[in-house]
Known about the structure:
Elements: H1 8-26, E1 36-40, E2 51-59, E3 62-73, E4 84-93, E5 101-107, H2 117-128, E6 137-144, E7 147-156, E8 173-176, E9 199-201, H3 210-222, H4 225-235, H5 238-251, E10 261-265, E11 273-276, H6 304-309, H7 313-328, H8 334-358, H9 372-393
Parallel strand pairs: 1-6
Antiparallel strand pairs: 1-2, 2-3, 3-4, 4-5, 5-7, 6-7, 8-9, 8-10, 10-11
Amino acid sequence: MAAVVLTAAAVTVIFMILHSKSNSCRLKKESRQLPVIFITTDKEIPWEGKTSCTITVVSNTDSTAWNGKIKFRGGVSSKYYKHSYSLKLTESHSLCGLPSNRSWILNASYIDKTFMRHKLCYDLFNLMDSNNIAPKCHYAFVRENGKPQGLYVVMQRLNKQVLQLNTDDTAAVIFKEPKIFYPENQYPKRKDGENFHEQTYPDFDKGDRNYLMDEFRKFLTQTSDQEFYEHVGEWIDLPNLIDYHLLLLFTNGGDGVKKNFYLYKKDSKTPYRITPWDCDHSFGRDGDNEKNMLEHLLDINQNILIDRLLKSTEYQTALKKRYWTLRKSGIFSYETIDKLMRENDPWVRLGLEENTKLWPYDSKNYYDAAGYEEEYALILEFVKLSIQHWDNHFRPEK
């Protein structure tokens, strides 16, 4: 009998049919189910550039397929066994109930055993002010050419649509991790012709706008104190920056001080705004998974913009006032974090069994073998410590 050779697409279709039947049975027992994202490619998924793919999303008994391009993504996280994906669909679609878009991140969340740290930071930043923008997220299983990859955090990519840019305005621009906030002795080396400040909109090859960040850097480092304090609000949205500053303090998000953020300008009438991106380093863990229950506080003064602003009594007063506004409103509270985690918990639990079989809690990249329950409790314990610490730091005057 001749051997039967199945393509990756055929394997995926068969897997989808079996999975759909399995899900149909479970529907009688469960009120909620995780979507399943099937990635089908004819070539190996690259780290550089993108390869063509078909994305099929199975949600309950519904199945929808779209074409797009995909690649692996990640810096330090690329060394982990489980990889994240960067996905661009040919047309805008809603993924896992999130607002319609073309660009998506399938975040492996390998180093965060709760799968919540990114989402908590984003949700908190969005709650702090309606003008703040951070990615919306949901949870899903991922299959790569029929092979299970475990539980993923499906995230909006911060592009012109999500950041609400006025694309008719030539001043609208987005930079991912511009190098402007580094101290002089840590400033990265620059190569000719490179997209040094990670311009993502407009496309770098259609018009290099890196000079805008060079001008911002020059303002930060070369202006007199009088000029700096008079004009800094024309460069950066100070209420937005204060919220970002406080988010880093409250979560001890040390990796967000000089990098792991987006800086964007919506149009010529608005200053630059900032939004968080990579939040593995938060809520009781450092970015490499080492436990940190405020034994090591982030050094916010490593950010040269914030360091210079903190020399101003007006900024210190505004920061303190904003902190207590967030505390009194209940946004910076144990109850709010507990509520957000309770909302995430049922979805995460649906994916834990499969994920831990593929990626055990005691793998070598982790500092300890703590499981989901222990990590969940660790975050809540961290929140108690953080509130106690920053309440004391920003103690109201009597």
